Amino acid sequence: MTLNLHWKKKFFSNQYRIFENGHEVGGLKDQPFSNTTTAGLKGQKYTFKTTGFFKRHTEVLDASNNVVAEIEYGNWMRTASISIKGYVYSWKYDNTWNTKWSIQNDKGTEIYYAGSSTKGEIKANVEDAVLVLAGLFITNYYWQTAVAVMIAIMIPIMVS
Questions:
Q1: Cα distance between residue 150 and residue 130, in whole Å
Q2: What end-to-end distance do the CA atoms of the chain give, in Å?
Q3: Neighbours of 80 (CB within 10 A)
Q4: Does the pTM exceed 0.85?
């Protein structure tokens, strides 16, 4: 593995901090009440913009606002595909509890993630900042969607 990172996040925070060898090297931050997330890793900065209602889609923009990647979400919040420079990468959860997930493609790229709602680790055989950040972004997106669904289900139950 060429990349070994750790991330931390406070429980109700919208910001991930990414570390390498104990030094902060990046992060990911949701913009409140927006479909925009800003992220960076080792000096490379990106913006994730999500659009659509029933069929959600995310474009990843570089600092010059050029689209450098696109994310398509699978059904049931278990998979996604990431398109970067003509290559397609598969993102998926690797266990039932959604505490392990990975990105892979047929060219041998492998990025493994493990974590909880407050901390985790990333191990990769590539140093592609967009791909590494996309893997963390997708998980955060699915976690937030799951919480929103649970709240939508609980409010009518609590009101009645």
A1: 30
A2: 53
A3: 25
A4: yes
What confidence tens digit (pLDDT) does each residue in 53-74 have? 878 899 999 999 999 999 999 8
Specify the CATH number for 3-159; select among 2.40.160, 2.80.10, 1.10.8, 3.30.70.
Answer: 2.40.160
Residue with tokens 């600092």: 63
CB atoms within 10 A of CB 92: 15
As beta bridge partners, residue 45 has 40
Each domain of the chain, given as residue ranges in start order, spans 3-159
- DSSP bridge pairs for 90: 81, 104
Across 9-118, the runs of DSSP E, i.e. the strands, are 15-20, 23-30, 36-41, 44-51, 57-61, 67-73, 79-84, 87-93, 100-104, 110-115
